[in-house]
Amino acid sequence: MAHPPCPLCGAVEHTVVAERAGGLRVPVTNVICQACGFLHRQEPWGAEEAAEFYRKASREYDRIYGYDRLHGEYVQKVQAAQARRRVRWLAEWAPAGARVLDVGCGNGAFVAAAREAGYAAEGMELDEAAIPVAPPVAAACELLGLDPLYVANEGRLAAMVPAESADVFLRILRAHPAAGEAAIIGRVTHTHPGLVELRNRFGGSRIVDLLSGEQMPRIC
Length: 220
Description:
The chain has 220 residues and is of the alpha/beta class. The chain is 30% helix and 18% strand. A four-stranded mixed beta sheet has the order 7-6-8-9, with no helix packed on it. Strands 1-2-3 form a three-stranded antiparallel beta sheet, with no helix packed on it. It has a two-stranded parallel sheet with strand order 4-5.
């Protein structure tokens, strides 16, 4: 089967890792680039097909979960149930006790469910000074008493790459017109599994905990 070029290095030789039905039973293929080792998902559609799929998915998810009607603790219960289903799927590919890193972890429900199931969740250490926050956003958050780390935002990429490849990956990102402020903001650590620790600008640290209330609304 022919595969599109690797989005990272452009090579065309890939190894298929898994093929399964994705959202709304659309088949997706996870592949590893044989040239650079980049693991990514390939979807059998172009831009117009993808846009139509996500419009249908949004309507279907609203119908099933009623996100516009859920609030507070009930939302957390729904998210926890979804996380447990994902962990059951994970068990088909990795045994309990394996290390798990949840990229783009949202509210942390998946990591919590994975730890309950016996997986070894890694920790994260972030550098507050390295996180690129636009000055207008920082000023608005200070005025309103908000923490930028808990304010929802779209159009951002958080990538996990091997430490030895981080500088090369950063140069590739910064070459794109929309990613000139890309930065290395943290690292994976074994010292506090399942937790995210933030090193502040004054040399101290704190745990970036789950959001205690509801997140501000966003268009997603």
